[in-house]
Specification:
The protein is of the alpha/beta class. It folds into two domains: 189 residues, P-loop containing nucleotide triphosphate hydrolases (Rossmann fold), CATH 3.40.50; 128 residues, Zinc Finger, Delta Prime, domain 3. 50% of the residues lie in helices and 6% in strands. It contains 16 helices and five strands. The chain has a five-stranded parallel sheet, sandwiched between helices. The radius of gyration is 26 Å and the shape is elongated. It starts with 7 loop residues before the first helix and ends with a helix.
């Protein structure tokens, strides 16, 4: 069974649509990164094919005497508690394992992506839809993949129950691919279900959005992430609390953090912030930045800036909170009180809100594939300017 963390409203909306036989031909799952859009899309695909919905007819005996007992009929899988899919029948298992012949999955990729790379992405999606592999920098959904989907949808399904298409990160479509998809959505073939996922609707063609039934997913709460880490991954309570604070509502981020050396990354963030105040030692600064840019890829640098952002936010909370309230304040790095105290006391004019904005802008630049070294140099200089330091 594909497990969805929270999102009860979205699941109930889909459940009612199925029960009332009002399933749309196209859905658009949208919401923050790590909220479970791809997991919910896969669960909906399971619901489309689930044998509880399409029970196989029992084979009839060749002859049956008037006095013979009728053969027992095998029961279809039961969907407990009104779940979208049983999760255990052959169809459900093959959907979750990415081996169902009538499921098509399209995702952003490099034009030069090898078959092995594409297979690995599907394998990671099957292993954990909250942690799908993304091996390419700045990938897009390719027009060739949309054309191939159009051909597939025009054919008869292998098992006779229709075809399901999943288009992941649909906001990563260029105009040509988006227009090709729009033609499919305008005249959807019978017995098809098309599902798109997107972090935001802002970058999508409005006509595509208007032809899909939107399903909004909410950012996960800290408590929901803690519970999932403990129940599904056996994370000790104290560590789960710390990871959930850092994850900022994203379960994907929480899982990534489990695989990281958090203490090392946080120390690098502390070193980066301290280096901002060493403008009287430009050679040392440049050596530090060169090493940082050379030894870390774009994803790692973004994670470094995320830790910087958390530290600066903690400093802002620390400064804005009275001594009696600090115990209950929402400080994430509670074990770094001395560093936060130094930041507040030694730099009384530090412009916390402006530095937070600069860090967020720098992360945006990395996401847009601006040259990392340039991003770091500009950011370091801006932090120094906003620190109020005269050293």
């Amino acid at each position: 069974m594909i497990s969805i963390i929270a999102q009860e409203n979205a699941k109930e909306f889909l459940r009612r649509a199925r029960e009332n036989e009002r399933v749309a031909h196209a859905y658009l799952f949208h919401g923050p990164n790590g909220s479970g859009k791809e997991a919910l899309a896969l669960l909906t695909a399971q619901s489309f094919f689930c044998e509880a919905r399409h029970p196989k007819p029992a084979p009839q005996p060749a002859t049956l005497s008037l006095f013979d007992e009728p053969a027992p009929q095998p029961a279809a899988p039961q969907q407990e508690g009104g779940d979208l899919a049983c999760g255990v029948c052959s169809a459900c298992r093959r959907v979750s394992e990415m081996t169902h012949p009538d499921v098509r999955v399209i995702f952003p990729r490099a034009a030069s992506a090898s078959e092995d790379e594409r297979t690995e992405v599907l394998r990671s999606l099957a292993a954990n839809p909250y942690q799908r592999s993304r091996p390419w920098e700045n990938p897009n959904i390719l027009i060739d993949d949309i054309r191939a989907l159009k051909r597939d949808l025009s054919m008869t399904s292998y098992e006779g129950h229709g075809i399901v298409a999943l288009i992941l990160e649909a906001e990563r479509m260029k105009a040509e691919a988006a227009n090709a998809l729009l033609k499919i959505l305008e005249e959807p073939p019978p017995q098809t279900l098309i599902m798109l996922t997107a972090n935001s609707l802002a970058g999508m063609l409005p006509t595509i959005v208007s032809r899909c039934q939107p399903v909004r997913l909410l950012v996960l709460t800290r408590e929901q992430i803690v519970a999932a880490l403990q129940q599904k991954h056996g994370v000790p309570p104290e560590h789960a609390q710390f990871i959930a604070k850092l994850a900022n509502g994203s379960f994907r981020r929480a899982l990534d953090l489990l695989d990281e050396d958090v203490d090392t990354r946080r120390q690098q963030a502390v070193d980066f912030l301290r280096m901002a105040f060493r403008f009287n030692k430009p050679v040392e600064q440049m050596d530090f930045l060169n090493a940082l840019a050379q030894d870390h890829d774009r994803r790692e640098l973004r994670q470094l800036l995320e830790f910087c952002l958390l530290l600066v936010r903690d400093g802002y909370v620390f400064k804005s909170t009275s001594a009696s309230q600090k115990q209950d304040a929402s400080i994430i790095n509670t074990d770094q009180e001395r560093m936060l105290s130094d930041l507040v006391n030694n730099l009384p004019n530090f412009d916390f809100p402006a530095v937070i904005n600069e860090l967020e802008f720098a992360m945006e630049c990395l996401d847009r594939y601006v040259q990392p070294w340039l991003v770091l140099v500009v950011l370091l200089h801006r932090i120094y300017q906003l620190s109020g330091s005269r050293r």
